Amino acid sequence: MKGDRVEVVVDVGDGVQRFDIRATRAGRRVEITNSRGSVEVTEVTRSGRAVRTARFMAARVVAVVEHPAEDAER
Q1: Taking Cα atoms as reference points, which of 71, 60, 68 lies closest to residue 19?
Q2: Where are the alpha helices (DSSP H) in the chain?
Q3: Would the pLDDT of 2 be above 60?
Q4: Distance of CA 13 to CAs 21, 43, 54, Å?
Q5: pLDDT for 47-65, tens place per residue?
Q6: pTM of this prediction?
Q7: Which of 7, 28, 50, 58 could join 65 via S-S bond, C-beta 3.0 to 4.6 A?
Q8: In what order do the strands lie in the sheet with 61-67?
């Protein structure tokens, strides 16, 4: 089963642009950090190592939507 998915909506001046960040493999997760005027979305392995990171200016971020992993049992 794949991990989390995060959708980031950013103001680009004449509208908004959506970015969809997903955990690409089973066991990975997506973490969100908000610090010093930036929003950072990082895909992390089970051991805590960062695989890839997306950074956005906090003043431009309109929304951050977290989608949890779906259960296989449902």
Answers
A1: 60
A2: none
A3: no
A4: 22, 28, 20
A5: 999 999 999 999 999 999 9
A6: 0.80
A7: 7
A8: 16-22, 5-11, 61-67
- Angstrom CA distances, 28 to 15, 22, 31, 36, 46, stand at 32, 9, 10, 26, 6
Q: Give how far Cα 59 sits from Cα of 7, 30, 36, 66, 67, Å.
A: 17, 21, 11, 19, 22
Q: What tokens does 20 get?
A: 């969809």
The pLDDT score that the predictor gives to residue 42 is 92
> Is-contact 42 20, C-beta < 8 A?
no
pLDDT for 5-43, tens place per residue? 899 999 999 999 999 998 888 888 899 999 999 999 999
Cα(10)–Cα(18) distance, rounded to whole angstroms? 6
